[in-house]
Amino acid sequence: MHILWNDQLVEREAVKIDIEDRGYQYGDGLYEMIRVYNGQLYMLSEHLERLWQGAEKIRMVLPFTKEGLTDNLKKLVALEGIKEGKLYFQVTRGIDSPRNHVLPDPEKVKAVLTGNVLPYQRPVELMETGMSVGVVPDTRWLHCDIKSLSLMGNVLALDEAKRQGFDDAVLVRDGKVTEASAANFWLVKDGVVYTHPDGNLILPGITKMKIIELAHELGIPVKETAVAEAELFNADECFTSSSLKEITPVVKVNEKIIGSGIPGAITKKLIAAYIADVNAQCGESDNR
Ligand SMILES: Cc1ncc(COP(=O)(O)O)c(C=O)c1O
């Protein structure tokens, strides 16, 4: 397997991660996860835009251009021969020795990029049957808009939900639904689709952005409004969205069955529109 390591494509075994890399010691860095369909990187420029915005928010200097990174990511996908896959890459603030909390001078300490691409297929079965979520308190920090490497809050929330027998967590902060452990969260009531507005409490999902555009085209009203936890249990439909799992219907919240326990009509319409958009952008793929 080849890894993109800064601006080189190397065998995995050749990559050297320093113990004083700030990503390793502090989780000081950013990441992106992008889907590959038909050998093409879906919504690549939107992901890169979010990375650049995140870098600005954490005052990290990226030592490459969007064009340079785009070229290298495309080369990695081509070299690995991946048609249907998931590309992960992260950028840490670099190797800072001796360890020191103070942000290093970016002239002296360069950000470190690593990325790989793996085969991955659309989770068709999950999208057809839906999943359960358990309500878990959102105990994450107040910069959830930053796609930070530090995922402790998300990891523990997912673990909490899994321990209770659910597939994922729906996070609630101050009585309001924020998002899922690694996805945005959506609720449908009386034909209107609700999701949390962008801001510091959720990640501005690339899939979320696309769904809002598609809903507009389909004439489905969307309200970016934080909904109360109690409204979860009166929802007609719920779903999550992420690059990895696209649009995943939610058919159970805690012990409450949502709608008739199967993916709802609006959710299904959005799934069909999303797949059509993927095919239009990337060409028909092997995915079902
Ligand atoms: C916490 C969180 N929210 C939302 C998302 C969805 O983001 P995107 O649609 O850009 O994949 C993710 C994806 O990893 C996430 O981790």
Please explain how this structure is put together.
30% of the residues lie in helices and 28% in strands. It has 288 residues and is α+β, with helices and mostly antiparallel strands. It has 2 domains: 118 residues, D-amino Acid Aminotransferase, Chain A, domain 1; 159 residues, D-amino Acid Aminotransferase, subunit A, domain 2 (D-amino Acid Aminotransferase, Chain A, domain 2, Alpha-Beta Barrel), CATH 3.20.10. The longest helix is centred in the C-terminal third of the chain and has 18 residues. It starts with a strand and ends in a 6-residue tail after the last helix. Pyridoxal-5'-phosphate binds next to helix 6 and strand 13.
The span between the termini is: 26 Å
**Count of helix runs:** 8
Main sheet specs: 9 strands, mixed
> What structural category characterises the helix and strand content?
alpha+beta
| Total of domains | 2
- CATH topology description of the largest domain: D-amino Acid Aminotransferase, Chain A, domain 2
Low-pLDDT runs of 5+ residues are none
The CATH fourth-level homologous superfamily of the largest domain? D-amino Acid Aminotransferase, subunit A, domain 2
Ligands, ions, cofactors: pyridoxal-5'-phosphate
- Strand fraction equals 25-35%
The Rg value, from CA coordinates, equals 19 Å
Report the count of strand segments.
15
Name the average pLDDT: 97
Instruction: Write the CATH architecture name of the largest domain.
Output: Alpha-Beta Barrel
Elements, N to C (H/E): EEHEEHHEEHEHEEEEHEHEEEH
Shape: globular
Helical residue percent? 25-40%
- The CATH class of the largest domain, by name, is Alpha Beta
